[in-house]
């Protein structure tokens, strides 16, 4: 049978099993938070243990009967499994229980669909949903008693199914083309920032680790942040100033979660590429979470999948206020380089130390210079302002302009390579071009 999705008010029975032969299982607390984030109303939580899932119903017949009785007693409209079900398992369970069944991937997709706000985010969610739906399309047409193959057995059900599959394929191809344009646009933006030597810092981390709150604190922004899973979904970018470094692009990305559905990783590749191409990752961790080590491991898995696991990373242990700590601190490695900062994005504790760590990790060398430019050098003056390296400007009596400049060695080397006028100006200011090293 086919179950239409109601608009609201779903009473849900939650099912969470532990399997002794599987390496890891989901956190039941997180599962319940996901259901609440989707707008569900949990009325019962059924748990159990098995060696392995069954092929037909995923659970044993005894547990399945327990779920059916609970559904009838509670008047539930939906049963949600904290596991990924195959299409046949989902259909078999629905037929036995007589109500809708949703697995973990479907639940997360539902949350993403609710939270997407931008056109790009909606396209990415729709793509993931269509790919998920394509494996379950048959469930919508079983009322026509469709049977595969055989002369005289091809009926309207199969014709309708083929039509739906064709429309799905066409829609998927259309969205993929649109997202390809998004990727190209983002790639061009990254090339522009690279040409201007503007570093990018991407916030990554487990969902609800406080990334958006930290983003707002650093960027003085107003991105929506709440104590719930996937409070924000669409990527946000802001330009901030880091002392002794200059302008930096700060990017807030979608939160990760244990066993993040592969379809979502694929659909959100355009967004996650901002993390994969960043100059520095800020891996935000909920320091108050008992399972923070497992959450770090789950984030590392996704970073490896998008080939961002080798990027320079600064760990940010957030929510130290929940641990009773009023002050932040910087932890350094054996070389004295900051590798972890303890902060509270809510109270502001440790934000100064985080800014200092960013200066050290991004400021690979900064030159301070005072340049005196003639009126004819307006193009060079505009370029310096465009790169955001001018800290003070003063007009002189002789008609020239005096600029106080703080520029990274990388930025300066790039300017000198393409602009002889810039090379001459910095040389006159007492910063000659370094001589090439001979080997």
UniProtKB/TrEMBL annotation:
PROSITE patterns: G_HFLX (PS51705). Pfam families: GTP-bdg_M, GTP-bdg_N, HflX_C, MMR_HSR1. Residues 199-366 form the Hflx-type G domain. Mg(2+) binds at residues 212, 232. It is found in: Cytoplasm. Keywords: Cytoplasm, GTP-binding, Magnesium, Metal-binding, Nucleotide-binding. GO terms for molecular function: GTP binding; GTPase activity; metal ion binding; ribosome binding. Gene3D superfamilies: 6.10.250.2860, GTPase HflX, N-terminal domain (3.40.50.11060), P-loop containing nucleotide triphosphate hydrolases (3.40.50.300). The keyword Cytoplasm applies. Its cofactor is Mg(2+). GO terms for cellular component: cytoplasm. GTP binds at residues 205-212, 230-234, 252-255, 318-321. Its main location: cytoplasm. PANTHER family: GTP-BINDING PROTEIN 6-RELATED, GTP-BINDING PROTEIN HFLX. NCBIfam families: GTP_HflX, PRK11058.1. Belongs to the TRAFAC class OBG-HflX-like GTPase superfamily. HflX GTPase family. GTPase that associates with the 50S ribosomal subunit and may have a role during protein synthesis or ribosome biogenesis. Monomer. Associates with the 50S ribosomal subunit. This is GTPase HflX. It comes from Umboniibacter marinipuniceus. The gene is hflX.
